[in-house]
Specification:
Distance between the termini of chain A: 16 Å
Number of strands of chain A: 13
Number of domains of chain A: 2
CATH topology of the largest domain in chain A: Nucleotidyltransferase, domain 5
Radius of gyration of chain A: 20 Å
Oligomer: homodimer
Shape of chain A: globular
CATH class of the largest domain in chain A: Alpha Beta
Largest sheet of chain A: 5 strands, mixed
Helix content of chain A: 25-40%
Strand content of chain A: 15-25%
Order of helices and strands of chain A: EEEHEEEEHEHEEEHHHHEHEH
């Protein structure tokens, strides 16, 4: 039987999304189960197994045509196939998730964290097809990263490499980051970081902006993007500040691995050129001469609703 | 004939050092030729060929027992075997050095820059034996780096990856770096950086220190180290400042590739614990929790006089 499909599973704190994917990156069928209703991981594995079998039944060949399962999970360790101390999941300690799922369904299973999965997805189906050296930055609630060198994701000696959201951009009077450090990129270039920048500017200036019409706790990166797209100068400045800082950080990442491109993914990229232009500016202002103007910054080419499933599924082609 | 030796060539602006090396990292014979007296690279190649043949004649089997030649060169590009626009050499533009040498001597030749060669040397004969993931930082006149991931040096898409000396540590009011950027690690953690720190402190404070007895242009990292080892508090503070900054930079590098160790090499390491302690402190103060206290910082184990030749030679084992 030709094993021409893979299954991707994206585990989030509340729900787990899964889909059957073909070699071109078409999601042929998908479904969702709850993550947070299972205090016991073994009960979750049973439900997930049922969902995987039901999904496979929707494609020709069923489970026999599925090569394997790839999973994108918080705090996932690729080497060990484990979830380790994930703060947003109910299962404590180290969970040998890949093994548990593999035993339940009788197929090989690989897992990694969300950002690494996104990088593999982009390389397999998206903007990084044909690239062997690139860096993927995910701009969501936090800032994640997946680094590809020589066609392989960089996992490091322990499986946890690629924490570029927690490199330090502001060493003096930097913002407190959720990770415990101060001045992390994530405290500035995430959705939450953009909202913090907006509040800081509103507090410390009296410039006129439509953002003042919003309730304080309703200020989000989405509202800032909307205001900016209508020409609100303060909102535009917020994106310029954010993009310049992200670009400067990217320049350091280029000095590390000299990628042929940087791919941006996630909510903030919806702002389009509002974020891309200052990123490119900040990047080129901080690159060494030999790289100036030579490292393209591109947006992900994966449809956002499918991206997490696609990224996870891409891991399974290597099984 | 058993090809049990390699030859390493370390090309500097003034002289080129070469040596025959066995698999254990013993330099069995070595010699030196001038680099800067040859305006024409072809004349240099002839001289280098003669020197290589003379060197090989000193070991059993002669040229027949030499597997190949590895070269550490300024601005060396591993992929292309070229020197590209090296500011300290007389040969302009792009020189296909590996090809030229290979044709002259009839052996395979590989080259890379000095810091990458140092990393390969350390992995082959030194402190990084058995390691697959580590970062080598060379602290000399400048700050260089060689990054090893999964047992391979990271060259990036263009052959120029690993410029960690030019990541930005101080974004506001940072020092001008020789590379044209501002706030680079190299402007602080190099021998020149230490001397600049010393002059800045002498200028902006009136603290008592033996460094004030030196002529202004005689202040170097060596004098600062000597004063510090005699207990001069200002000199100790200079190393603390330098080490803390280098350590903070290393924390960002760990977030990138999660190495199992960081190896320091070069002049500044002669200061021993004076530099190592603040480096380790700066590193752990800036690491994410999952890595705190877990990433050892070690000094090179290669004898300094042999290290450049050993590093270059190590490239040739892979030929």
């Amino acid at each position: 039987m030709d094993k021409k499909y893979v299954i991707g599973v994206d585990i989030g704190g509340q729900t787990s999304k899964l889909g059957v994917v073909d070699a071109r990156g078409n999601v042929l069928a998908q479904s969702v189960i709850r993550t947070d209703t299972h205090e016991d991981v073994n009960m979750y594995i049973k439900d997930l197994g049922d969902a995987i079998r039901a999904l496979a039944a929707q494609v020709d060949g069923g489970m026999n045509s599925v090569r394997g399962v790839g999973m994108g999970v918080p705090n996932g360790n690729y080497y060990r196939g484990t979830i380790e101390f994930a703060p947003n999941l109910k299962w404590n300690g180290v969970i040998p998730l890949a093994d548990l799922v593999s035993k339940e369904i009788g197929l090989p299973v690989a897992l990694t964290n969300d950002a690494n999965a996104a990088a593999v997805g982009e390389m397999t189906y998206g903007a990084a097809r044909g690239m062997k050296d690139f860096i993927m930055i995910t701009l969501g609630t936090g800032v994640g990263s997946g680094i590809v060198i020589g066609g392989n994701v960089v996992y490091g000696h322990d499986g946890f490499a690629g924490e570029l959201g927690h490199t330090t951009q502001v060493r003096t009077n930097g913002r407190q980051c959720a990770c415990g450090k101060v001045g992390c990129l994530e405290a500035y270039a995430s959705a939450i970081g953009v909202a913090r920048t907006a509040r800081e500017i509103l507090e410390t200036s009296d410039s006129k902006t439509s953002l003042r019409d919003l309730a304080w706790d309703k200020i989000s990166s989405k509202e800032v993007a909307e205001a900016a797209s209508k020409g609100d100068q303060v909102a535009v400045d917020i994106f310029n500040f954010t993009g310049n800082m992200l670009g400067a950080a990217l320049a350091d990442f280029v000095a590390f691995s000299s990628p042929e491109a940087i791919i941006l993914f996630g909510g903030l990229t919806k702002a389009g050129d509002l974020i891309k232009k200052p990123v490119v500016e900040g990047l080129n202002n901080n690159l060494m001469k030999l790289w100036k103007g030579k490292i393209p910054v591109e947006f992900s080419q994966l449809k956002e609703s499918d991206a997490a499933i696609l990224g996870a599924s891409a891991l399974a082609w290597e099984l």
